[in-house]
């Protein structure tokens, strides 16, 4: 309440000062992401979190006190959201490296982009352990970054879209279990955050907002992920036209996203920072620079006392590493270098990628973190989307019942 602040007297200051100090931003990582691969032909066969860790270390941004080795979620912890039979099937798949046909089909394991690989249980369970730990660390406020998180397609009883478990849903449940009543989930991935939206549909404590490429899986002809899909008033979806540029993204963030978050007055923000909306990504057709995502994170950060920052999609190893390292740099208050020092440059230069776009990587993928901004005209369909979204927002469950 701004009025209360403007009338705050000196007598109120001691209690304000006695609040627990906001801890410095924390980074949750694990070495499991370095050695584990989804299989040589899978889009996630590329290194991502391990490169972010190496790059941030090379830049001096990961001193020991801020780096936390991620715990692995136990089956009991996963059962806060996932069915026990499904969890047991993923564990069996890890142990045996195979499943019978009926089990594969029922749980979508070993098909449709969800391969059975050596760490099929332990790797996603580690990402979930990170998000659950983050929820606990955020009790007193602050910023926690779990770049391995963001598996937003995971369903309660099946794998979906490379996601075996749903760590954003578990992290949000953790925040609610620790006593919070208002959590805002912002999904910047090129794909609709369907699993998280479904997890909290009609739950007025959690609002989910997803910006994603129009028409791309998992959007459906029936309208899932479209503007009219509001999950009973607790979600907003902004499908972006192909080729959406930084100017269009910024326009939607400023006219729709920031006012909506401010209206919701969240106690915590959870951001899924998938890097597949970037121009260089091979799986989608949006044209953002990493600066568009960085600007968004910095703009929403002051709107809540707690931030859980997650990773997500992203299938170009250089684009992911540069984008996510930059996010950590900005969240932890670093000045981003224009030209990377030799140790950081060498880490990016050593990456390889089997994709055709990896044959002749441009020099700036090695030598810098920031892309050149990809500004452009704000097309009429983006302006129409904003206008229609404002009308939809009038009917959403945004008012703070707990204020
Ligand atoms: Zn994605």
Describe this protein's structure.
By secondary structure, the protein is an alpha/beta fold. The chain is 38% helix and 10% strand. It is built from 16 helices and eight strands. The longest helix is centred in the middle third of the chain and has 19 residues, at 246-264. The chain is globular, with a radius of gyration of 20 Å. The relative contact order is 0.13. The chain binds zinc ion. Zinc ion (ZN) binds at residues 189-191, 274, 276, 312-313.
What are the main properties of this structure?
alpha/beta; eight-stranded parallel β-sheet; 16 helices; 8 strands; 38% helix; disordered N terminus; binds zinc ion
Summarize the structure.
The chain has helices spanning 2-6, 13-18, 32-35, 49-58, 75-78, 84-96, 101-107, 122-137, 167-177, 194-199, 246-264, 290-300, 317-331, 342-349, 364-367, 380-393, and strands at residues 26-29, 67-69, 142-146, 183-187, 206-213, 235-240, 268-272, 306-310.
């Amino acid at each position: 309440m701004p009025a209360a602040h403007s009338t705050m007297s000196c007598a109120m200051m001691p209690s304000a000062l006695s609040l627990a100090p906001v801890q410095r931003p924390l980074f949750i990582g694990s070495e499991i992401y370095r050695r584990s691969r989804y299989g040589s032909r899978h889009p996630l066969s590329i290194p991502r979190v391990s490169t972010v860790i190496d790059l941030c270390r090379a830049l001096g941004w990961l001193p020991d006190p801020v780096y936390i080795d991620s715990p692995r979620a136990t089956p009991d912890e996963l059962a806060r959201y996932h069915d026990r039979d499904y969890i047991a099937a993923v564990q069996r798949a890890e142990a045996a490296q195979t499943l019978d046909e009926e089990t594969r089909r029922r749980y979508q394991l070993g098909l449709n982009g969800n391969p059975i690989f050596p760490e099929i249980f332990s790797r996603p369970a580690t990402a979930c352990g990170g998000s659950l730990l983050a929820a606990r660390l955020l009790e007193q406020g602050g910023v926690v970054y779990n770049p391995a998180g963001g598996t937003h397609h995971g369903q309660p009883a099946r794998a979906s879209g490379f996601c075996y478990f749903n760590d954003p849903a578990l992290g949000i449940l953790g925040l609610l279990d620790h006593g919070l009543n208002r959590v805002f989930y912002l999904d910047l991935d090129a794909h609709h955050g369907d699993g998280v939206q479904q997890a909290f549909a009609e739950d007025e404590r959690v609002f989910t907002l997803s910006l994603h490429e129009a028409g791309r899986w998992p959007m459906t002809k029936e309208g899932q992920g479209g503007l009219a899909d509001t999950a009973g008033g607790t979600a907003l979806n902004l499908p972006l036209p192909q080729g959406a540029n930084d100017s269009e993204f910024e326009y939607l963030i400023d006219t729709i996203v920031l006012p909506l978050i401010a209206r919701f007055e969240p106690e915590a923000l959870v951001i899924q920072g998938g890097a597949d909306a970037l121009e260089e990504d091979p799986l989608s057709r949006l044209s953002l620079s990493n600066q568009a995502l960085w600007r968004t994170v910095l703009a929403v950060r002051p709107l809540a006392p707690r931030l859980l920052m997650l990773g997500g999609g992203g299938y170009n190893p250089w684009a992911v590493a540069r984008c996510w390292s930059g996010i950590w740099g900005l969240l932890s208050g670093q000045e981003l270098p224009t030209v990377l020092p030799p140790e950081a440059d060498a880490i990016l230069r050593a990456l390889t990628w089997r994709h055709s776009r990896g044959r002749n990587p441009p020099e700036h993928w090695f030598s810098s973190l920031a892309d050149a901004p990809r500004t452009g005209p704000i097309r009429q369909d983006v302006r129409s989307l904003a206008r229609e979204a404002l009308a939809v927002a009038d009917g959403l469950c945004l008012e703070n019942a707990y204020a």
